[in-house]
């Protein structure tokens, strides 16, 4: 929204946070039907995820727009490097580890996901998916499915916190409040739902390496546009 339509980052963030749960819910439905959600991991990641997305969404109203863009861009750059290593690695497509259970692992996943989602307005999948693989031992497709389920609840709380506290933030003459963000989100939700359903179905059909390459390209485009004016 910020890159394509020129909305200031805070307004784009608020609108995106409204859209996120509507996109995550149909995706989670499809992933659950295919058996790619680990509900044990889901339950354990929620407490810190909800707490930190609420706190970070409120805090984000007081963080400069440029700083958020740079942080988001650097984060995408890290995700790109991590994903590229997996694409070039020899074990892609052969993930079979058993999930690792330990409350500290889920606390870290929930905390990092909540912070990035709240501060940057993203659904959290970019952070949650690699963390679920590294810390919790989930396969790529289970990490994607479980991440979408976590996002349904965490992003709902984040959207409410962000938009209720958005008033008073403004730049470049744009009116920035929860109602403005809601009007923008209303145009995006229908196509977002369709895209989420299609993406979830393709995730189950395509090989792991193909899913990683698509993910890699999208992350690279986002990082370049954010970091290079």
List the helices and strands and how they pair.
Layout: H1 2-5, H2 9-33, H3 39-60, H4 65-88, H5 103-120, H6 125-136, H7 140-164, H8 178-205, H9 208-227
Describe the structure.
With 229 residues, the chain is mostly helical. It is 78% helix and 0% strand. Helix 2 runs antiparallel to helix 7 and helix 3 (39-60) runs parallel beside helix 5. The chain is globular, with a radius of gyration of 17 Å. The two termini are 15 Å apart. The model is unreliable at 90-94 (pLDDT under 50).
Task: Please count the beta strands (DSSP E, at least 2 residues each).
Answer: 0
- What share of the residues does DSSP label as strand, in percent? under 5%
Terminal Cα separation, in Å? 15 Å
- Major sheet details: none
Give the H and E element order: HHHHHHHHH
Q: State the assembly state of the protein chains.
A: single chain
User: Helicity range of the residues?
Assistant: over 70%
Morphology call: globular
Kindly name the structural category.
mainly alpha
Low-confidence stretches: 90-94
Rg from alpha-carbon coordinates:
17 Å
Mean pLDDT: 79
Q: Please, how many helices? A: 9
Kindly list the characteristics that best describe this protein:
229 residues; 9 helices; mainly alpha; single chain
Give a short synopsis of this structure.
With 229 residues, the chain is an all-alpha fold. It has nine helices and no strands.
């Amino acid at each position: 929204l910020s890159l394509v339509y020129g909305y200031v980052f805070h307004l784009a963030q608020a609108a995106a946070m409204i859209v996120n749960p509507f996109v995550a819910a149909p995706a989670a439905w499809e992933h659950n039907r295919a058996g790619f959600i680990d509900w044990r991991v889901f339950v354990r990641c929620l407490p810190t995820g909800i707490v930190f997305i609420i706190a970070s969404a409120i805090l984000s109203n007081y963080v400069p727009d440029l700083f958020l863009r740079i942080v988001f861009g650097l984060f995408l750059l890290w995700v790109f490097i991590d994903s590229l290593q997996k694409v070039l690695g020899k074990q892609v497509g052969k993930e079979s580890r058993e999930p690792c259970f330990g409350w500290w692992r889920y606390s870290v996943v929930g905390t990092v996901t909540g912070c990035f989602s709240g501060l940057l307005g993203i659904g959290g999948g970019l952070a949650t998916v690699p963390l679920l693989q590294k810390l919790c031992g989930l396969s790529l497709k289970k990490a994607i499915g479980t991440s979408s389920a976590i996002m349904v609840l965490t992003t709902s709380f984040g959207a409410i916190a962000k938009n209720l506290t958005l008033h008073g933030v403004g730049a470049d003459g744009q009116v920035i409040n929860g109602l403005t963000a809601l009007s923008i989100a209303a145009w995006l939700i229908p196509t977002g739902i369709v895209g989420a359903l299609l993406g979830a179905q393709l995730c189950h059909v395509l090989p792991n390496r193909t899913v990683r390459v698509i993910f890699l390209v999208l992350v690279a485009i986002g990082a370049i546009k954010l970091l290079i004016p």
